[in-house]
Design goal:
Helices cover about 35% and strands about 15% of the residues. The protein is of the alpha/beta class and about 250 residues long.
Length: about 250
Amino acid sequence: MRFDVVTLFPELFAPFLTSGITRRAFESGQVDVQLTNPRDFASGNYRRVDDRPFGGGPGMVMMAEPLAQSLAHIRSQRTEKAAVILFSPIGKKLDHSMVQEFSNGPGAILLCGRYEGLDQRFIDAHVELQISLGDFVLSGGEIAAMALLDSVARLQPGVLSDPESHHQDSFNPALDGLLDCPHYTRPEDWAGAAVPEVLLSGHHVNIERWRREQSLDLTARHRPDLLQRAREQGLLSKHDERFLAGRG
């Protein structure tokens, strides 16, 4: 798959693409990331990519033409059609199901806005999907683009050391969309706190039951919306419901 990122700050991506375990996906080309700077397609001696907003007000707005030229260049380089995505506050919130869909697709063209945003005429003409990380504002779309790329990269075969690892992630369908359980490692006693005995028992059935119950408990306490969705989808067993009913 190929992701084209339109950004005024391509240098921000260099350490991201070459560090950590997900670099395997980028270095192998499983997730091909190409960076395009709209300034390379701007006219004039100063290569301006932004201007003052009509109607007045603070800040600057990214101009439509350099973005359109960037998009035309990208499309001439791609062999497959790709959705044009803008990271913005009005977008659909990024979640696991969306990431899974991207991980099985051809990639996308990611637009990283800056300043007060993009000229609305460009958005109306070219943007097919808007995505948000949450109800807060970033200085630009680069961090959001990295979040999407990272989440997609770790789902690719061979990227994680243990291929089953991401199946135990929070929100994964393998966990019925619930939160993951707590995890512990050596030493068995740290600062007076001991590892739960069941994890030392070697009894795999009991361990799996404990992990499921912990997942249910954490989700009920911190994300009851996820629990309700799992219940509506018929994903909770009779044992799950008995455990939840007995929590008090």
